[in-house]
Design a protein that fits this description.
There is one protein chain. The protein has 21 helices and no strands. It is 77% helix and 0% strand. The model is unreliable at 1-7 and 441-446 (pLDDT under 50). The chain has 450 residues and is mainly α.
């Protein structure tokens, strides 16, 4: 078993894990709460009588937020590689706090016409900028802060925290559904979760200011004395363009499946299965709670058997299982059948979500790791993840809803080919300290520190 690099005691690793995860939780609460409450505030910003059209408008703004993710990935990924993971994490949560406050204060169509929709759009663009850097900064931080033989486990907490952020949003929604009337929710109650998001972000800002920088980044910046002007640049990333291409391809199927069975699931159960809003929300909440618990188990499993077996299992399951699962969900009008089918889908998706952060971080050297994770991942998300809900609603509005199921399967198939052909990254060495304590290290396993 590899040794423990200096400065990485079990206590400091646990503190980094908790700190990074809690910050990521609030970031993704703010991100997902928009999708969770869209069914209530769509009327406030877009006039008309067609509910699907209103959801298409709000989903379109949701998707536009993803277009800023590559920009955020580039700017904040570069910052994380040049100034440190900690500083990038602090900046992302600040941006998210401002965006949440903007949404909370946005004027409705009845008061300011389409000005409210413009404010909503600007807030989503700002959130996209923030999340574009958040994913890479947290993925890199959690992976680098974990022991080498537990990186799958450590990085799995990224999706634990992401999912808990969504659960927090759904929990707030369920609470408001039981304390406010539908009219109150549609009138002003939908603003409450965004106010809470801004307050949560202030707490996380304080927490992230107290995090310790990772040893891998400290080692890298110390080695060049902070004078390496190429660190975190597109020129260096181009030298690792094959790895960047791998990140995009392996993300494609995973991100489409994830957003299909998380953010879109509630709307699908309401709009296609005819389920009550409160029941559909409870199905999503319960399924996601179980999903969060599965992430560390699968991450730990990948530390024992490798990353590729889990990725391949996910891709095969998603390719052949999406059509029957989604078709059955469309007929599941009660809680238990819908929950069972949702859990089957999320168990499959766990093969990707639990380890994707580690896999991507393990592909790159320290000097370009955050940017290498951020930019190609953000591009793939902008093209496919952020548009998944919009594509689903577009097919539904055109009367061809089941074509979306084949779309999801096709994306998973592309990723399956990638998983089969790519190397397993479990044994990558991320720092010189790890290499020094690993007597079995060989050149191809230490490529990530060069």
């Amino acid at each position: 078993m590899p040794g423990t690099p200096p400065g990485h005691s079990p206590g400091s690793r646990r503190l980094a894990l908790v700190g990074g995860s809690l910050g990521n939780l609030v970031e993704w609460y703010d991100w997902f709460v928009y999708a969770s409450f869209a069914i209530y505030f769509a009327d406030s910003f877009f006039p008309g009588d067609n509910p699907t059209t209103k959801l298409l408008n709000t989903a379109g703004i949701f998707a536009v937020g993803f277009l800023m993710r590559p920009v955020g990935g580039w700017i904040l990924g570069r910052a994380a590689d040049r100034r440190g993971r900690k500083s990038a994490l602090t900046l992302t949560v600040t941006l998210m706090s401002v965006a949440a406050l903007l949404i909370a204060l946005a004027p409705t169509y009845g008061r300011a016409g389409y000005l409210g929709a413009v404010v909503l759009l600007l807030a989503r663009l700002l959130q996209g900028l923030s999340i574009g850097g958040e994913y890479a900064a947290s993925a890199t931080y959690l992976t680098e802060a974990s022991a080498r033989n537990r990186r799958g486990l450590g990085s799995s907490f990224q999706y634990v925290s992401m999912t808990c952020g969504q659960l927090l949003g759904l929990g707030v929604l369920i609470t408001l559904q039981h304390t406010l009337t539908t009219g109150q929710l549609e009138s002003w109650g939908w603003r409450i979760p965004f106010v809470l998001g801004a307050l949560f972000s202030v707490v996380v800002y304080w927490l992230r200011r107290r995090l310790t920088e990772t040893a891998a980044f400290t080692e890298e910046s110390g080695a060049d004395g902070g004078t390496d002007s190429a660190r975190g640049t597109l020129a260096v990333l181009w030298q690792h363009r094959r790895e960047a291409g791998l990140v995009m391809a392996l993300t494609l199927g995973g991100t489409v499946a994830y957003y299909t069975y998380t953010t879109y699931l509630t709307k699908y159960l309401i709009g296609s299965a005819g389920m009550a809003k409160s029941t559909a929300t409870l199905v999503s909440f319960t399924a996601l709670a179980v999903f969060a618990l599965l992430q560390p188990l699968a991450g730990a499993l990948s530390d024992r058997i490798g990353r590729r077996p889990l990725l391949i299992t996910f891709a095969v399951g998603c390719t052949v299982g999406t059509y029957p699962i989604m078709t059955a969900l469309g007929s599941a009008s009660s809680y238990w059948p819908a929950l069972g089918l949702s859990l089957v889908a999320l168990v499959i998706v766990t093969g990707y979500t639990s380890i994707n952060a580690a896999v991507k971080a393990e592909l790159f050297p320290t000097r370009v790791r955050a940017l290498g994770v951020a930019l190609p991942y953000a591009i793939a998300n902008a093209l496919f993840g952020g548009t998944a809900e919009y594509v689903a609603l577009w097919f539904k509005d055109g009367g061809h809803e089941k074509l979306f199921f084949w779309y999801v399967s096709g994306c998973a198939l592309v990723s399956l080919v990638t998983y089969v052909l790519m190397p397993d990254t479990r044994d990558a060495v991320l720092s010189r300290a790890e290499a020094a304590t690993d007597t079995d290290a060989v050149p191809d396993r230490t490529r990530a520190v060069r």
